[in-house]
């Protein structure tokens, strides 16, 4: 029997998950086809909507800043309603695991590099550490971990002009691991309250080690590895033993907060009844005129057709390999959609490292229905929509808008695909 759904979403990240959930809300059958594990596990776990416009910011209200963006920005197509719909789907999917839905304003979250990042949604474990809270802070790092220097974090946070004093200390984790141990290993030890090197539980030993450095601080921030399955329990016990609030600081890849978010989204997809096909790449398509009939998925060297009425392309941008490039050209590899770019590759970037690089905005050009268009401006296919990083026009890293663009375009593309199927 052929594999057939009403809507087929190609991709495995935030945009793809949102598109699949939006399409499923219309009552249609939906399948998500994902090749590699998503880039969520490399991300901070924060949900940014819009923090900067052309380097100016941080902006307090992301919705108010949308009007200052270029006309070809994806937000110009989906509007404020699309952004809010994407956040609504996200909030429904993650439940009370995330905070920030009570306000339209950005929160300011300290990160592992000491920057203060404007973000719209953030894990509950991060909430007590917001930079807007006037509570003196002790940042704690662990010996042997190289990607989180608590003294550097504290120094940079203070330099950002926060309304509290901060300092950082480095302590030994109370259980010795291999030098290449990952954040998940530390988290598991705290989850299970494994035996510390001194024979007691690691939670008690960690609290004792930190207590030696506490003076008048009202909260303590740790790198985001305070447990996985029992993270709330771990933080509660540490806070009780220390007598201050405890929070997590988002870290770099591999990100435990990103892994948790990926797990929650895939659990939401499963609960919604979205069929999942993972581990195999989409390698081509079959079309009849301007309509796609099927996407071919490589399964052990055999191209298997996945049929649908409507399709959503959400494979990511340059980082996620949804947009490909070589020394000559820039391409979209699944449907060969048009990606505008200069023929002179030296115009793809600027000499200034943090400048407005052209490559950052590479992607397909959608019409008002989020259908990728050809060079002529006409839709490539009548039943294909695009969402997330594969959509061009946004410098998401500079704007701090990657998650918001994924959510908004995913919600609109998925919803319209479901309505048309």
UniProtKB/TrEMBL annotation:
Gene3D superfamilies: FAD/NAD(P)-binding domain. Its EC number is 1.1.5.3. One of its GO terms (molecular function) is glycerol-3-phosphate dehydrogenase (quinone) activity. Residues 6-405 form the FAD-dependent oxidoreductase 2 FAD-binding domain. SUPFAM superfamilies: FAD/NAD(P)-binding domain (SSF51905). Keywords: Flavoprotein, FMN, Oxidoreductase. This is Glycerol-3-phosphate dehydrogenase subunit GlpB. The gene is glpB.
């Amino acid at each position: 029997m052929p594999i057939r759904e009403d809507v087929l979403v190609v991709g495995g990240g935030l945009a793809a998950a949102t598109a699949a959930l939006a399409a499923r809300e219309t009552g249609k059958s939906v399948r998500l086809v994902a090749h590699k594990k998503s880039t969520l596990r490399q991300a901070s776990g924060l949900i940014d909507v819009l923090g900067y416009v052309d380097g100016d910011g941080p902006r307090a209200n992301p919705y108010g800043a949308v009007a200052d963006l270029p006309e070809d920005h994806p937000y110009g197509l989906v509007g404020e309603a699309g952004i809010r719909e994407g956040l609504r789907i996200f909030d429904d999917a993650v439940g009370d695991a995330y905070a920030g839905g009570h306000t339209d304003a950005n929160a300011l979250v300290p990160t592992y590099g000491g920057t203060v990042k404007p973000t719209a949604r953030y894990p509950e474990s991060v909430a007590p550490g917001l930079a807007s809270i006037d509570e003196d802070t002790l940042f704690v790092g662990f010996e042997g971990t190289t990607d989180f220097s608590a003294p550097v974090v504290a120094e940079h946070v203070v330099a950002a002009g926060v309304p509290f004093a901060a300092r950082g200390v480095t302590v030994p984790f109370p259980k010795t691991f291999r030098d290449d141990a990952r954040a998940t290993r530390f988290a598991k030890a705290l989850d299970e309250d494994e035996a510390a090197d001194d024979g007691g539980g690691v939670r008690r030993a960690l609290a004792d080690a930190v207590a030696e450095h506490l003076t008048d601080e009202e909260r303590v921030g740790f790198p985001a590895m305070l447990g996985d399955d029992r993270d709330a329990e771990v933080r509660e016990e540490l806070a009780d033993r220390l007598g201050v609030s405890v929070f997590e600081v988002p870290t770099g890849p591999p990100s435990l907060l990103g892994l948790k978010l990926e797990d929650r989204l895939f659990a939401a997809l499963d609960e919604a009844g979205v069929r999942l096909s993972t581990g195999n790449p989409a390698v081509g398509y079959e079309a009849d005129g301007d309509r796609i009939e099927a996407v071919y998925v490589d399964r052990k060297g055999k191209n298997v057709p996945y049929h649908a009425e409507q399709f959503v392309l959400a494979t990511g941008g340059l980082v996620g390999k949804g947009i490909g490039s070589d020394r000559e050209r820039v391409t979209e590899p699944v449907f060969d959609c048009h990606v505008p770019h200069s023929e002179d590759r030296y115009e793809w970037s600027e000499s200034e490292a943090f400048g407005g690089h052209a490559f950052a905005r590479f992607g397909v050009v959608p019409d008002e229905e989020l259908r990728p268009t050809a060079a002529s401006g006409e839709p490539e296919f009548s039943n294909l929509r695009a969402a997330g990083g594969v959509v061009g026009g946004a410098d998401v890293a500079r704007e701090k808008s990657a998650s918001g663009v994924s959510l908004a375009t995913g919600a609109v593309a998925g919803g319209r695909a479901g309505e048309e199927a």
